[in-house]
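Recall that a protein's primary structure is simply its ordered list of amino acids. Everything else, from secondary elements to tertiary packing, is in principle encoded there. The following example makes that idea concrete.
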Amino acid sequence: MVKKISKNKEKNEEPHKIPEESKNDSSPENKLHGKKSTSKDRHRTASSKPTLCSRCLGSIKYILLIIVIPPFLNYTALMRESSQLQPAGELYDIGFGQKLFMNCLGKGKPTVILDAPTGMSSDVWSLVHPVIAKETKVCVYDRAGLGFSDRPQKNSNSNMANHEFNNKWQEFTLERMVYDLHRLISISSQQPRPLIMVGSELGAMIARGYTQMYESDVCNMVLIDPLVEEIFTHDDGVWSHFWHSHLVPSYQSLQLSAATGITRLALLIGLMEPPVTGEEIPENVTMRQKHFLSHPKHMSSVVDEHYFINESFSQIRTMYTVKPFPSNVTVTVVTGNYYDEQLPSSLNKAWAKSQEYLISHIHPGSNHIVINGADHKKMYRAPKAVADVITKLVRQWRTKQKYTKKMKQYTH
């Protein structure tokens, strides 16, 4: 009996064996928390590394999708919309592989040519165009690169050799625009003469340049809120600083935004609106303006017209230095008595001073018409008042022609 008890005692006194896994686990973390590491724990720790990599790869995949999908969707939308939104009119080949869009309505003489403001398409005349067409023939067009017109071909020796391209003027400058317009209405299409040249902002400068170069074509010139070559010199160059430090960079940002598809997204969610707005603007014009804002080609041309403005100013100065303005052409300057709300007061005042200089020094004796309650958006905010100025000149020309014809009959 005694012997049996002693044997059991010996069994109970045997030291407790430590598991091999516990022996090998000597990490400070486990010692600190009193936890024992198992093979499952080690497997979980080892498998966490590829999980982190997979997360990074997943993030990169989503970033790439965000970068690629908006431009792709924008491109496909632009291709679909280009045929759906193109207005009535034609693409005229002006030579050198370049086509310009033009839309003419109405019949009779003289022919009115409407030229849009800086960086804008012919849509700005959408409410003026049909009103004038009731009186005479009137044409709107998109300058090179804007709207549905092709961007201009670059001047190069190969172009000159292959196409007898003797145009030596820089793309998106005044002389090049005048040259393009002349080919459009004289070679690609034969629009009846004489012409009433109507332009707003940069379009007004093109009207002046065209009249200087082709004076026999023109009987009247209407300058609506004209951009004057002296504008950068007034009020310590406030416009020069704004133009090059703010306006050009902002359009460059919009160009990038159009190329990446961000503009289309901003238009869809209401963060942006098209430049031509108003209660009377047709829906198709609004849709077309959104299309142009989302189009990298159009926005690139908007940037270029602003970027090369100094060259255009220099060219118009040279034109007026070389020869005087033709005395047979009447000049009408149209402004409003309201400032542009989107511009600081200092810029509005400097612009007004440059227009006063145009009236008093460059074209003394011109007829100055002020439209009450109108600002720089008068073409689509006060279209009837603008159209009335032009149709009045049409009637005056016709009355003069009838009088001249009667006088010839009496002399014979």
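The longest strand covers residues 218-226. The longest helix spans residues 39-85.
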